[in-house]
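ok so I'm stuck.
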Amino acid sequence: MADADFKPQASIPAARHDSSKHEPVDLTFSPFVRFGFAALVTTVLIFFGLHLLMTAFTENFEQTQRSRPGLMAVDQFPEPTLQTTPRTNIKTLRAHEDAVLGSYGWIDADAGIARIPIDRAMTILVERGLPATNTAAPKGSRERTKP
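replied:
not stuck anymore, here's the structure
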């Protein structure tokens, strides 16, 4: 193939070396300086804010500690109040309960409420039966029927 068949589509203009079309300085430092100054000021403000907060917390803690009663030493701590004779205690309690349940006495004398011994109460219940109630079953409850 001959060179005659080859035709360029467009011509490339020659590169111009004009000095007015390039950046005069590669990097400006003023945005970095401003950012650093803002970060420094913010750090100092946070430091002083935390210092004021911790001072307030310390004063509050010291005031709370002053208002509390003094702590007791280990040797001043009272011993636990445990039962020393639990079997005797339970026997005494049951004897008192049996005496109350087996005797007559007033529960409220002004209202006329008295207590009677358990044995006497069971005898009366057997003789008279349970008291009849005139209350109807609540709504929604099922009535029991005898089979």
